[in-house]
Structures are given as C-alpha cells and as structure tokens.
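cron nightly-structures :: item 1 of 1
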Amino acid sequence: MNTSAIAEKNISETKLDFLPLEGTDYVEFYVGNAKQAAHFYMSAFGFQAIAYAGPETGVKDRASYAVRQNKLTFVLTTPLRTDNSIADHIYKHGDGVKVLALKVQDATRVWQETTKRGGKSCLEPTNLKDEYGELVMSGIHTYGDTVHYFIERKNYKGAFMPGYRTWDNPYFSPDETGLLYVDHCVGNVGWNQMNPRVKFYEEVMGFRNILSFDDNDISTEYSALMSKVMSNGNGFVKFPINEPAEGKKKSQVEEYLDFYNGEGCKHVAMATNDIVKTVTALRNSGVEFLKVPDSYYDDLFDRVGKIDEDIAPLRELGILVDRDEEGYLLQLFSKPVEDRPTLFFEIIQRKGARSFGKGNFKALFEALEKEQEARGNL
C-alpha cells in the first residue's frame, strides 16, 4: 500500500471513530471498607497513595481513596450511611467494579454522541473546578450496574480530580511491582445477552468486534462459554464480553453471575514489561494465583515456538504462554480477591501478540474448575 493510500485509510478511520478514546483513566470499585481495600492494593499490588475524598473534603455520603501505579489508577469507594446507592450496590454485588472511566478530549461531545446513539445517561456533562483547574466528566450505563465515565483532563493539573485532596502516608511507601496500565477489562453477561451488548458497543460507542470465541474454543469436559472482544478505533480500550454456554456443569461465568447477582466486570487485566519479576513480587506480597498442571510445560515450545524467557521460572510461577501471528504473550490469573468468587486480576505481558491467549483457555478453565469444585459450585 502506497503512502497516499495509507493516509486516506487513516483519515477514513479517524472519521469513523466518533468516540476517540485515549485509554482507561481509572477503575472505581465499590467496597465495604475503602481504607482497608486501599491498603490491600498498596501492600499487595504495589500501588501508591495519591488522593482522598470524604467528609473532610466536603463529600458527605462516601469516602474514596485513589491509588496509582504508573498509568494504572484505582479508586476505592465506600458508603458512609446505609440509605445510599453505593451501600445498595455492595449489598447486592459484594465488592466489585462500578466505574470503568475512559480518558477523552471532550467529555461533553462524547456524552452527546453516545446518548444520541442510544446510550443511557448516568451522568450529564459536569464541570468540576479547584485551584488546579477544571475537569469535565460525563457518563453512560453499560452492562448490569456498571457505568462508563468519560473524563476530560486537558485543563486540569491536580493529582486526581476536584473534590479530592492529596493523600499519602509517610510511614508506608510500598515498592512498585511493575504494573503499567489497563490492558483490557472483561465483562460477564447473562444468557443470550452477549450479542445485544456487542451491538451496544458497536452502535453507541463505535467499537468493533476484533475477536470471537465460541464454545468449541472455550470449553472443557464440564463447562463452556462464548466471548467477543470489542475494541475502540485506536485499540487503546478493549472490552471482551463473556456469555455462558451449555455444558455438563456450571461454568465460571454462571458462578460469577450467581454470586455477583447479575452482570458485571469479571476481571481487570494489568500490563507489565516483565511478568516474571511482577508475579514474583505479587506472590511475595500475598497475592494468590491459579496454578495449571505441571504437564502444561512439557510441550510448551512445540505449541508456541521459541520464546525469550527461561521456562523454569514460568513453570515455577505458573505463567501461561500463547502465540498469534504477530508475536506471543505471557499471562497469569489471580484467584478471586473477594470472598465471593467474582472479581480477579490478570497479569499480562505482550511481546507482539494482540490476542487474548486462546491456546491457554483449556488449561485455564481446568484450573478454574478445580477452584469451583473446592467451593462446591461446579
């Protein structure tokens, strides 16, 4: 393709992308005790304290703690009273993801574009100001009780956002673990709901379906699911959508839906440039990970070809490897980080690959099924 044709193609794609996203701004969790949850993500995952909002900052119904590691920001929010929508969310779902916030250049225009295409508003464009400038945010509903906020920061220089104050603890400064940014966030939806959710992302947010997996791709002897990966125009934001499929026993998606009491974010995948170093640090801090059978590594090179890493630490840590036509990836999944078997995390290192570990699905599902069986939920 010549230079002129490439330029025309890029211009065409830009025109089609009516919702240009710059990545994930933050992920907000509604939790039963935000102070303790913030300490967990700092001590176990290596996040640093950055900002706090609560009664001391003029917020009367909640307390929120923002923690950050590189471009990865989590907000932990808890209600201060029972007659509160946050308290209702926690009672129904347990601790979980409420907000997937996306970084944009114009939060007002994005809200207008998405709502006119059928998006249901959860937050009209709102201007927040303090001594560090102005931040604009808006939002729409997505699957279940989860929402997308659109965050415009171009005129804001503060640590997080107005309404928050700087928060740190001079006596506690955990070492970072090499986590960089959100690679993708996976949503679990109910029976026969994947295609309607895919349609939402296509029509309301201008995403496209870049990968699809059916129950032949993602299955074991006992359970199965179907998945479609949705991506925005520039590829900075990816949302795989999972739906249960018929199997002999209950799948991990069905277990999630039962314990979460509805649709929601199943896991957040966090990128690293050195998965062995990151997982070693996380494990030493107490994060528990799924373990695949040791036999997974016996024919690893036959399945994925040559890789840069030594197989010994991969085997020791349980790190999975998969390859696509553009390279390979390394990934590992934590056990649920809540008492309910719902939310967990993925650690992923991409070395060219743009896929999601299709070759690991069987081994991963078998590991998950062992956990389900131990809980009595398979």
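cron nightly-structures :: done
The chain has two domains: 18-166, 179-375.
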